[in-house]
Give the backbone structure.
Amino acid sequence: MENFFAVVEEWIQLSIGTFYLIGEADIWWNTVKYKWQESKLTWKKFIEELRAQFYPVTLQRQKEKEFIELKMTGNMTIIQYASKFTELSRFALDFIASERMKMRRFEEGLVFYIRNQLAGQPIKTY
């Protein structure tokens, strides 16, 4: 039964995800979706294919590096930092594989006085 729910969840993710494609992404999907009818397309594989098509490896590496080096600067608000963190995090999924890792990475980029105020707080999720 658990496997059934996993299959349904994959189908829902793919159905909703591909429904919202627009422009070039929609055209691309309509030309390649037929090759996936014979094999099982997972959400993860879909995302990999989509990124490979629209984000060259060099750009992916550049964005991953930006994420790794992301720090809150003196004139940046927490909202701006969180927005940039979220935007770049999709390129560095290995660095935020769990909620704990994601939160730790987020905290590391905060300015010292904010990070200091969070010290000792039991924050477990981003």
Remarks:
- The CA atoms of residues 108 and 114 lie 10 Å apart.
